[in-house]
């Protein structure tokens, strides 16, 4: 009985390892949103369930999922999006913005472009901003 369990565990580990190799070797599909995805040192990543202060604003990320939204040309299609909750730290005024990759968000006197949205499979998702 113990040998059968060990064999089953070995097979499962082998299959998991093979799956990882085949996924890594497969070319990843290109998306129109990939044009913003090249990271640089000035990028700011914000995970869901956090609320960092950026340019004097508290910024929270939530509700990362696909929604039917228009692109730059007005074509409506499923797009990965997120909701930002923004609170001005000094006055506690707040606003909510729905964003997609390519959106420009004004925080205080600074502007940021959304360069990436990750839905987070088994952990909270995140967005990445780049200061303009």
Structural commentary:
The protein is α+β, with helices and mostly antiparallel strands and 132 residues long. It has one domain (32-131). It is 18% helix and 45% strand. The chain contains 1 helix and 8 strands, in the order H-E-E-E-E-E-E-E-E. The strands form 2 sheets. It has a 4-stranded antiparallel β-sheet, with no helix packed on it. The protein is globular and about 65 Å long. It starts with a helix and ends with a strand.
What's the SSE blueprint?
Layout: H1 2-25, E1 43-47, E2 53-54, E3 57-70, E4 76-88, E5 94-100, E6 104-107, E7 110-118, E8 126-131
Antiparallel strand pairs: 1-8, 2-3, 3-4, 4-5, 6-7, 7-8
Can you describe this structure in just a few lines?
The chain is an alpha+beta fold.
- Alpha-beta classification: alpha+beta
Strand order of the largest sheet: 1-8-7-6
Instruction: Show unreliable segments.
Output: 14-37
Rg (C-alpha, Å): 20 Å
SS strand fraction: over 45%
Helix content: 10-25%
* Tally of discrete structural domains: 1
Biggest sheet layout:
4 strands, antiparallel
The arrangement of helices and strands along the chain is: HEEEEEEEE
Average pLDDT value? 78
Total beta strand runs: 8
- Count helical runs: 1
Question: Any idea what the shape is?
Answer: globular
Considering the chains and any ligands shown, give keywords for the structure.
globular; alpha+beta; 45% strand; 4-stranded antiparallel sheet
């Amino acid at each position: 009985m113990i040998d059968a369990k060990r064999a089953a565990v070995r097979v499962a580990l082998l299959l998991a390892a093979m799956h990882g190799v085949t996924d890594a070797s497969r070319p990843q599909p290109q998306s129109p949103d990939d044009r913003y995805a090249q990271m640089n040192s000035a990028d700011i990543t914000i995970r869901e369930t956090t609320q960092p202060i950026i340019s004097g604003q508290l910024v929270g990320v939530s509700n990362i999922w696909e929604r039917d939204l228009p692109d730059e040309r007005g074509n409506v299609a499923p797009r990965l999006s997120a909701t930002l909750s923004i609170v001005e730290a000094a006055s506690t005024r707040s606003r909510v913005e729905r964003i997609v990759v390519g959106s420009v968000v004004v925080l205080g006197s600074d502007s940021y472009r959304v360069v990436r949205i990750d839905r987070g499979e088994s952990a909270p998702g995140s967005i990445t901003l780049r200061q303009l």
